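DATA SHEET
Item: assembly model
Revision: 1
Owner: S.N.
Input lines:
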Amino acid sequence: MDGAFDIDEIRYIFFNMQVMEGQWGLLFSGLWMTVKIAVVAIIASTALGLLVSILRLKGNAFTNALLIGYLEFCRATPIVVALIVVYFGLPFLNITFSPFQSAVIVIVFVHAAYIGEAFRSGILAINIAQSEAAQSLGLTQLQTYRYILVPQAFRIVLPTLSNQWTGIIKDTSICTILAITELLKAAQIVAAWKANPTPLVMSTLLYLLILIPLTIFTMKLERKAGLKK
Amino acid sequence: MCFMMKGRIKIISSKNYKDIAYGGSIAAFLALVIYVMFFSGADWSLFKEQFLNFEKMEGRYHIFVSPLLLVLKISFYSCFWATAIGLSMAIIRNYNNMFLNGIITAYIVLFRSIPAMVLVVLVYFTLPYVGLNLVSTNSVIASLSLLFSAYTTEIFRSGINSVDRAQVDAAKSLGIGSLQSMRWVILPQALRVIIPPLTSVLIDILKTTSIAYVVGVPELIARARQMEGVIGSVTPLIFVSFLYFLIILPVVIFSSRLEKRSRRWSKS
């Protein structure tokens, strides 16, 4: 480093709005792609996670073994590896997914395992007397889940769930390794073209704009859940 | 009458239900396997040739030794720094200084929010502009330590909070200084609460090292993709994912066992 930090120089390097002129379009289209992946993945993985948790609770030894294997597999596989295998590996078998599809498939597959585990512990935390009461009122199994257990479980696991959702939004940035122009990739393209890191800084700020409120929300929920105990 | 009917229905239905569910789940799984094997359009003669072609890999396994060590090295250093930063920040927070607490909370919120990929790219590609040239490995270690220290701070804090307040007071009345009481009274008791979540941070660090691939660290995935080009088969990639699995799975099993045990402790 030569010389002291100069505030104008820092602004010129990291917050150079001249570089960004006319580039916001690409950055925002990247943001739109990130949001699309995140929304689809969040909805699908929550639904799949709920299904997995109910299967775990109602299942037999065989399905339980399968689902435990699935959970441990997801815990031990980095998303980068899974993405590369799905996107670059599967075409060798003539199974081709678009980058968007493979991103969603991998993120949903991995996060559904975690969300399923969270829901399972949430449903288990509900007093067993409740489902017995529901049964004695003549509710079917499905109705018990639909009206009694799942709504309460949602409230219990909301801190974990919002943590997972934040994780899903963060993991969309890993999809830059595919040929998909989401926020980080868009920023990298502009940064490489303009030879200035301002777009990277701007994209980070955009990520933080979405993620910081979510993190604060999650932390508040966690604190509340902690106090209840 | 009512009870009898209910009992009868329950017995019959629960038995039938279990049989049907058991048979049904196995049948559904087999159907899925058969569908994937024969009807999904996948060419399975290719599978062995492309995915499990270990003949082509022969004599190339030694190439994976140094990247494997590199992955372990990155994880070790990130884990060390994340733990060190987290512990010291948790101790600082324990003094309840408003100003320092505000800074630490902001730090936690910031690094819990920023995606790992974004931070790694940011550290590696923007710091050189201010004349700070980090080696790619070090930039990954730096970003992982920053990221995960946010989590470890909270883990250590909740561990320290879990120790009864009376213990601290007792230590104080014995004339033990605050740092010493942290070292000899609080931390040994807090470890029981701290260690299970700390192992899950270790798992996350091990998994996140794979991001180093984007900044050109010669780690496992980068080597596998190079070799994939050379031998024209995805086998190295499969081998590497198996290696990752092999590193992480023992930690996963260890961690879930610890969690189960700590749950039993907290219940009793």
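QC remark: Chain A touches chain B through 57 residues (CB under 8 Å).
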